[in-house]
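Hi there,

I know you've been waiting on this one. I reran it after we fixed the sequence typo, so this is the corrected version. Both the input and the resulting structure follow.
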Amino acid sequence: MIAAWYDSQGPAADVLEFGTLPTPEPGQGEVRVRLDFSSVNPGDTKKRRGWLGSAMPYPRVVPHSDGAGVVDAVGPGVAQSRVGQRVWVFGAQSYRAFGTAAQFTVVPEWQAVVLPDSVAAEVGACLGIPGITAHRAVFGDGCIEGRTVVVQGALGGVGSMAAQLAKWKGATVIGTVRTSADLDRARASGLDLAVALDDPDVVSQVRDFARDGVDRIVEVAFSDNVEFDAAIARNNTTIAAYGTRDGRPDFPFWPMLFDNVTIRLLGSDDFSLEAKTSAAVDLTEAAQGGALAISIGDPLPLDRIAEAHDDVDSGSRHRVVLKLPT
């Protein structure tokens, strides 16, 4: 099969290779997927770079966890009827060596989710890491219908999906952006309120809109935003954080204690099977019903994978996907 891989960590152009590898065979409880698209997430590029001192988990890595395609073979214990199904794949390179940057990938059956015909394959390829993270951030602490949810970084990969999922399930959604220059884009995305963190009156804007405080905060940059989060919290607010700039952040302990604030930290690779499968069901339903809009850039061919990784690392405003050769 045609694939891309790296045998050592480093800059994309230095370590990513393109060529042919043996086509994998599915084992017990697994399916093989012939991929149409592979999406690139920040987590994929961090693994390649050795972020936080991480080492090579395997001698050779075919990167990327998420993708979409068609099941073309099944292993023992999997119904033959799965062959031919359109699917979206998540976690392909989570605790496994070979991900979706290849013509074929092999995953446990439950990680290949049936993709409705009405949902484009490139959309399915983008549901995995950001969608499951967003789902857990929004729904990990119970029903949100009638609640007020703040999504920090509402135009980002996880943030935009969190905002849309929260609206889909009946929440009032306040979204933040870093600068006022992004407010028009945020307002056009369907938020109930969009605010810019560089506005000196941002806390007052949120308090005036949500007079009883907010119930849930989806947090992309805990260390940078925690003072703001504490200022808008109410009693029993949950902050669900999946990112931080400072790895050892300070936070206002006593004000947050008196508000009985819960801080939930989210590491998507290690969500429970139940949490991941619940997210997969909801994400598929939301995509099929038109509740999710994902901004996807023009697909790049697999042999331009280094460029794709650099686009992600530079903060592309669109999801970066690769088109696999047929």
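Quick highlight: The mean pLDDT is 97.

Best,
R. S.
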